[in-house]
Amino acid sequence: MPRRTDDIVIEVKGLTNSFGDQVIHQQLDLEVRRGEILGVVGGSGTGKSVLMRSIIGLQTPDEGEITVFGEPTIGRDPTEATNIRKRWGILFQGGALFSTLTVAENVQVPLREFYPDLDQALLDEIASYKVVMTGLDASAGPKFPSELSGGMKKRAGLARALALDPELLFLDEPTAGLDPIGAAAFDELTRGLQRTLGLTVFLITHDLDTLYAICDRVAVIADQKVIAVGTIDELLALDHPWIQEYFNGPRGRAALAGKRDIEGEIKRRPTAASLAATNEADAEQGDDAVATDAVKTDSGTR
């Protein structure tokens, strides 16, 4: 059954990007489905970020077509482009916070750009809500980026990306520079927000743990194009040398082992039904014990 066109949030056809004589993309095609987290991977210099910049309009490609929400994005009238941009949020690598603005003021930047008539009280309320939504304490709002840890900067950047209640979220290396615990926590936050808000997520990453933990599908960029898109299990079945080296190398095997450990732990955890059955059995045993004690007491009295 053919996929409905409204299920495709991003469609890239025949994309070519070059810088001078260096060709980055050559006839690249990609589709991003509504409601999925799509991971984008590739070796250094394959143009993962260039692809994202092309989609969001920061890079004008040499050739090709790009549509977002069914609307072409290349060469659009500024007003029409603004209407599309309102529907997405972007977390750039490192957070890209304005150093002279507080966290709350950073979150308010897109609100001020697209809705200049909002009063300050409402701006403050929205910013506070978005900050807390990303797991930061409300006290982070008045702080400057220099006062934040690396993980807090990522979350503050994410709060800004969510300021306009977007349908589509772009994340560029969101866990880069974080320790394993911080990276896992950010992955969990991303998946939770995606499910709660119904987001479509375009996620550039080199973090195999992230791919295994939260990505529904993965797009692999190599040889100047997207050579494969699918679940990790589907990609593992391919014999392309880069894919095999990436997913079956030492880091890939470690990430897979970690995923299986987590899945095993989840299976071992008691379900709500089993807990209820255990509690019911314990209650019955307790009732039997009380009844037995009552009989013994009655017999002793006689």
UniProtKB/TrEMBL annotation:
PROSITE patterns: ABC_TRANSPORTER_1, ABC_TRANSPORTER_2. Residues 271-302 are annotated as: Disordered. SUPFAM superfamilies: P-loop containing nucleoside triphosphate hydrolases. Pfam families: ABC_tran (PF00005). Keywords: ATP-binding, Nucleotide-binding, Transport. CDD domains: ABC_Org_Solvent_Resistant. One of its GO terms (molecular function) is ATP binding. Residues 10-248 form the ABC transporter domain. InterPro entries: AAA+_ATPase, ABC_transporter-like_ATP-bd, ABC_transporter-like_CS, P-loop_NTPase. This is ABC transporter ATP-binding protein.
